[in-house]
Amino acid sequence: MKSVNIHEAKTHLSRLIERVEAGEEIIIAKAGRPAARLVPIEGARKPVRIGGLKARAPVPDDFNTMLEKEIEALFTGASATGPARKRK
Q1: Which end of the chain is more exposed for a tag (fewer CB within 10 A), N or C?
Q2: Tell me, what's the pLDDT at 23?
Q3: Would you say residue 12 has pLDDT above 70?
Q4: Is position 8 within any domain?
Q5: 17-27 tens-digit pLDDT
Q6: Apex CA 8: angle with CA 45 and CA 42, to 5°?
Q7: CA neighbours closer than 13 Å in the CB half-sphere of residue 15
Q8: pLDDT value at position 41?
Q9: Residue 8 belongs to a domain with what CATH number?
Q10: Dihedral of alpha carbons 71, 74, 79, 83, sign
Q11: What's the rounded Cα separation, in Å, for the pair 38 and 16?
């Protein structure tokens, strides 16, 4: 259990929260005396459900190439059907 003073806790609160989420307990001290304790909340995280979208919607066979010409046109400055435009 690590102890930090109030000024350090205010300055590095996001870092302290990350450490608490990892399971560490932190004591916040005021004038060298313990004033508060940061502890992780039990059961705050929901378990990740893997494969939740399996077989919910069909994926088209041409999914990887569906908008290939349009995307290329966005990067090259050309219209999807014609040659690239010249910039002024």
Answers
A1: C
A2: 87
A3: yes
A4: yes
A5: 999 988 899 99
A6: 20
A7: 6
A8: 85
A9: 3.40.1620
A10: negative
A11: 8
Our count of domains for the chain comes to 1
Cα distance between residue 5 and residue 10, in whole Å: 9
Residue 7 confidence (pLDDT): 93
Domain ranges, residue 18: 2-38
In a domain, 51, yes or no: no
Within a domain: 70: no
Per-residue pLDDT tens digits for 29-69: 999 999 999 998 877 667 777 777 666 777 788 888 888 88
User: Minimal CA–CA distance to 85: which of 73, 70, 71?
Assistant: 73
What is d(CA 15, CA 12) in angstroms, rounded to the nearest whole number?
A: 5
Measure the CA–CA gap between 19 and 44, rounded to whole angstroms: 15
pTM: 0.46
Name beta bridge partners: 34: 29
**49, part of any domain:** no
